[in-house]
Amino acid sequence: MEMTTSARLGFHPVKQPSGTMQGSLTPLSVLGPQADDERQRIRQQFDAGVSARDTVRALCDLADKNIQRVFGEVVRVHDASCAGFCLLALGGYGRKLLFPYSDLDILFLFGSEKAEQEFRPLISDFSRTLWDLGFRVSSAGRTIEECKRIEEDNAEFHLALLDRRFLAGDAELFEKLDARVLPGSEKQARPFLLAELHKLTKERLSRYGNTIFHLEPNVKEAPGGLRDFQAAVWLRQIAGENKEIVNSSSLEDELAAGAVEFLSAIRCFLHYSNARNDNTLTYELQAAAAERSLGVVDGVRRSAAEWMRLYFRHARALNRQLLRYLEQRSTTPQTLRQRFFNAARGTKFEPSNGKPFAVREGLFEVLDQQAMSDRAVTFALFTEAARAGIPLSRRAERGIGYIMKHPELPVRNAEVTWPVLREILGADYPGFALRPMQRLGLLTEILPEFSRIDSLVVRDFYHRYTVDEHSLRTIEHLQELADPPDERGTHFQPLWKTVERRDLLILSLLLHDIGKGMAVENHVTGSLSALESAADRLKLSTEERNEVRFLIGHHLDMSETMQRRDIFDPSTVSAFASTVVNQERLQRLCLLTYADIHAVNPEALTPWKAEMLWQLFVATSNHFSRTLDTDRLHVSEEFSLLEQVRKQTASATVKEIERFLEGFPRRYLAVHSPVEIAAHFALHQKLRSEPVQVDLQSTRHAFSLTILTADRPRLFATIAGVLAGWGMNIIKADAFANAAGIVLDTFHFADLHRTLELNPSEIARFRRSLVDVVTGTTPLEPLLKGRESASRARPLKVAVETRTSFDDTSSAHSTLLEVVAQDRPGLLYDMGSILARLGCNIEVALIDTEGHKAIDVFYLTEQGRKLRAEKQEALREALQGTLA
Amino acid sequence: MMKLEAIIQPSRFESVKDALREAGIEGMTVTEVRGHGRQKGHTEVYRGREYTVDLLPKIKLEMVLPDKLVNTVVDTILKTAKTGKIGDGKIFLSRVEEAIRIRNEERGENAL
After folding, report:
1. Nearest-CA distance from A631 to chain B in Å?
2. Least confident residue range of A248-257, A542-551, A710-719
3. Sign of the CA dihedral A616, A619, A622, A624?
4. Chain B residues with at least one Cβ partner in A under 8 Å
5. In the predicted model, what is the mean pLDDT of residues A211-236?
6. What is the pLDDT of residue A654?
7. Segment A794-803 long-range contacts (CB within 8 Å, at least 24 positions apart)
8. How far is CA A113 from CA A84, A144, A154, A633, B13, in A?
9. What is the mean pLDDT of residues A805-830?
10. A137 part of contact set with chain B, CB < 8 Å
11. CA–CA min distance A122, chain B (Å)
12. Whole-number percent of chain B with pLDDT over 70
């Protein structure tokens, strides 16, 4: 077959605008306007309320009709027979879903290579004519032999081929491909297609942050978009199931059908509004769509924000369906990293130990569905998920959801208390529980305030996600710090690992933006009022409430300070520190700020911002540890504190309280509540009868020991020695003294051998032992001897280099000594002994640990003065020699 | 036309931006940068580890201006970015040959 130049020109309206295809019955000048008129009519009908389904079908029919017509004309003009050549519609067009500005995916199928050579010139004319008629053609050509082979680098083509539909040409050739060639090769390629579909889908979902909750979502590609539906259909097809989900009868499929119709209407609307294949639902178009109640079936007019909630509901239906299919039809259920991670935790297959749930292949599964009607059991499952960082399977989630949706199944223990919730919030991976809790509606059952921000779109230039999604993401960004995915998290990892009252931090994050869903001028005010109602219901203690109140009320402070103030200016740091008050709170606020910026959008926390935040944290933290003894309490200025403490104590006079508090470092107030201070004062009152007062409290994971006594040589070292002798590991300690020389030491320690926990009678002996050694009634050495051999035998897991540094400038009265060393039982005793031996008096001590690292700061004096240079050198040598 | 590049303290950025807006300047490119001039940085110690902050955080503003606005903008930045301390930053000016608006191919100052 040969084609003449004039024949080619005949298809080109630009060069021959009013011409005809040579020998053609229908001139382009007629076909073009006909197609345009038909498009216009379809659009008008859509605008008049015709469904999206009918609209995309009409567009498809229009394209089919024109393709068949042009193909017939081209074949005729070229005087060819179409034997051995046909056209197929693929992808969305193959499924008869053609959106106004979508491409037409067409496959030119040849019976042989010879046919391919023969028909190539015809194809070029065909394609060009379609373009001239306003159809965007995206075409590929294959011989029937090529279709048999799997192109490993082009899985998209094979997936699109699953939706093949005959358009024009040699029908027998199509029949051969459809009925004889592809069924066999597709069956053979099933594992490949499944794996590739998984990979492509996960990559796509990950590009959009694995969330449907985008403020300006892409209704085709984003999670919850039409592509999710298509991927679910493909998963069914590959598995050999019916692909017509839309006509299926199950509830989930009905929801999906409704969602497809809703999203298709949006996509048509976007294409018409943008006059191009742009699927981004921008703020402007959200408002326009809400104005015309696009896709709304109940006839209720909604604001743009309310209409977007409809969108998210539909998107959620499609996304959930896809995720369930992905999990069920997973060839490789986890990434290599996940598998290693889970294998390391031994979670591949754990026995249930009589519990109604267990870990199976790295996911929590429910073994006894009925048991889930007991909320206590359900929350025990969430708590374990949050502790271990293991997600619930979709099946487990659906099982819980089933019970929740069936009121005829009575729920037991429906009331969830703060102690239950705080176990989840305080765990290492709270997001693993909070996500499914939110999806199931359990989160709003406990925190109804959270429903105010459910799927809430708040328009600004920076946020990418809805408010609820942003809030949950903040928590997930924190739990990622266990193993930071990139350099931005490196600095903050130790802060996350060591932060105290993580539960309060996570509760603050859940509530910090609730105000955005309230009619208030400043969202922080709204969030604070949400806290009050939540705190009343959950029965938070005053201290807990105050802490969360602070974090919510000041959640923008650190971000604003680092961006609007000179963080290298000491006065900035000092002002910021005076707002934050103490180190523990600083750590929580810093993590909150890190998470809050990070969850705005994936790029919001630039390495630059992360560094600024870190610098402000370090400067403030150092400010706290270096200004301890310059900032002493003068009680006469602390009327409100005195009143609060006095209220807690029955018979004491203000004067007595004043005498006790005068001269303590301000940090003492920052780390102890008025109730605790009153308890310390009560101990102080008993000093006359018993010169060493000991208070021992058991906390959630450790013990807290308070000792109050008159200062004496080697006191700090002696107490540390007793703790070491009993095999206790000191995690944290403070040593303060007031103006009258009364020392208040607080030690938080872990009972490594569970001596006190398993033998309650030992508690009294432990207390006695402390008093006796401190008062000198009993020597310390025999107690320590028993422990030496045991501690020597323990191998070191991580080696920490010993570093000592002195600072003479931060304090007006003392020399600061900072020691970083390998933590081990007895370390503090060794250090304290060296300090005492060299005649150093500890004015203030801050003892902390971070994994295997001990970080201790001492404010030292020698005969009331700073340490001389020679003394510092001697101390350094002694410490290096003993600790290294 | 002149291209203006200003390196300023991050803490002064909001004020500079507001002042420029008041002066009628709407368009600018803003970049988070790190660097140092005579303000050499410092070393911070936190929990026994040294962090050398030798490249300090700064904000870089870039804008191309019609000649008649250059002095106003320079004055505005000087007034609002100056704290008098070392590290306040610098302003660089350079001549621009041509500007073209991509959307409609307008050229010269009309494209700004």
Report:
1. 21
2. A248-257
3. negative
4. 9-11, 13-14, 32-34, 42, 44-49, 51, 53, 56-57, 83, 87
5. 93
6. 81
7. A794/A824, A796/A822, A796/A852, A797/A852, A798/A822, A798/A851, A798/A852, A798/A853, A800/A852, A800/A853, A800/A854, A801/A884, A802/A879, A802/A880, A802/A883, A802/A884, A803/B48
8. 10, 9, 21, 93, 66
9. 86
10. no
11. 37
12. 92
pLDDT, residue A9, reads 29
Q: What's the rounded Cα separation, in Å, for the pair A460 and A62?
A: 41
How many helices (H) and strands (E) would you count in chain B?
2, 6
Q: Give the minimum alpha-carbon distance from B6 to chain A in angstroms, rounded to a whole number.
A: 17
Query: Least CA distance to A610: which residue of chain B?
Result: B57
* B51 chain-A contacts, CB cut-off 8 A: 618
Round to whole Å and give the CA distance between A105 and A94.
8
pLDDT in tens, A668-703: 877 888 888 888 999 998 998 999 999 999 877 789
Chain A residues in contact with B56 (beta carbon < 8 A): 568
pLDDT digits (tens, 9 = 90+) for A285-336: 999 999 999 999 888 889 998 899 999 989 999 998 898 888 776 554 444 4
Structural domains in chain A, sorted by start:
5-188 (3.30.460.10), 195-328 (1.20.120.330), 334-446 (no CATH), 690-883 (no CATH)
DSSP annotation of A703 reads E
Burial of A146 from C-beta contacts in 10 A (0-12 / 13-18 / 19+): middle
Q: Spell out the SS3 assignment of A390-426.
A: CCECHHHHHHHHHHHHCCCCCCECCCCCHHHHHHHHC
Q: How far is CA A826 from the centre of its chain?
A: 39
Residue type, B81: A
Please, which residues have CB within 8 angstroms of residue A408's CB and are 6 or more apart in sequence? Answer: none
pLDDT(A117) > 70: yes
Probe site for chain B from A603, A608, A616 (most B CB atoms < 10 A): A608
10 Å CB burial of residue B86 (0-12, 13-18, 19+) is: exposed
Domains of chain B, each with CATH number or no CATH: 2-111 (3.30.70.120)
Distance from CA of B32 to the nearest CA of A (A): 7
What six digits make up the tokens of A134? 């306003």
**Beta carbons of A853 and B13 less than 8 Å apart:** no
Helix axes A715-725, A827-837, angle to 10 degrees: 150
CA distances (Å), origin A356, targets A351, A364, A372, A396, A419:
11, 10, 8, 11, 22
Residue of chain A nearest B88, judged by CA positions? A566
* Residue that wins the pLDDT comparison between A798 and B25: B25
Q: Comparing A265-269, A791-795, A853-857, B62-66, which segment has the lowest mean pLDDT?
A: A791-795
Question: What pLDDT sits at residue A339?
Answer: 44
Supply A421's token pair.
């919730």
